[in-house]
Amino acid sequence: MGYSVIECSQKKIRLCEMHALRLSSNKNNYERLHLIYEKVRELIALYKPHEFAIEAPFFGKNVQSMLKLGRAQGVAIAAAMHSNLPITEYSPRKVKQAVTGNGNASKEQVWKMLQQMLSIEELPQYFDATDALAVAVCHFYQYSSPIPQVAGFKGWKDFIKKNPDRIK
Q: Which range among 33-37, 74-78, 141-145 shows the weakest confidence by mean pLDDT?
């Protein structure tokens, strides 16, 4: 499980932490889920984040793998909910699009873009960690965009009615 913590101020992002929690195959599934829960709680206690973003489940061919992934994501979300953090999920395609401009980018392409954006020199051991950083950066872009979110409007007339100051 990859995880990342970023600090954001206006239009700047600073990497605080990026790692992967490696879970031993010697432990049973419930012990691994407990470790995930504890790690997320530990990160929340240490960094006191304001928000929690996670990659949404994607569709795969192996049902057992999907079930395990869904449980792991659920445990991480439960840990964030325990701290009353707002939770946002992003599809893998949305994350890649936000970071590279290409929803079909490879993990290597995403990592190279993150390296350039955040001036990171060291190479992470696992792409799980870089995936987590990409989700955090995607979340930052989603909420710092100068383009207003159009959700909640019934059309252009409704948008103009609710935003008269934006008409020139």
A: 141-145
In tens, the pLDDT along 57-67 reads 776 778 888 88
Report the half-sphere exposure of 159 (CA within 13 A, side-chain side): 10
> Dihedral sign, CA of 127, 131, 136, 141?
positive
Angle between helices 63-82 and 29-47 (to 10 degrees): 40
Q: Which residues pair with 12 in a beta bridge?
A: 9
The CA distance from 83 to 65, in Å, is 28
Residues 6+ apart with CB under 8 A from 114: 99, 120, 130, 133, 134, 137
Determine how β-strand 2-9 pairs with β-strand 12-20: antiparallel
Give the 3-state secondary structure of residue 24.
coil
- This prediction's pTM: 0.83
Find residue 3's DSSP bridge partners. Answer: 19
Q: Helices marked H in the chain — which ranges?
A: 29-47, 63-82, 92-100, 107-118, 127-144, 156-162
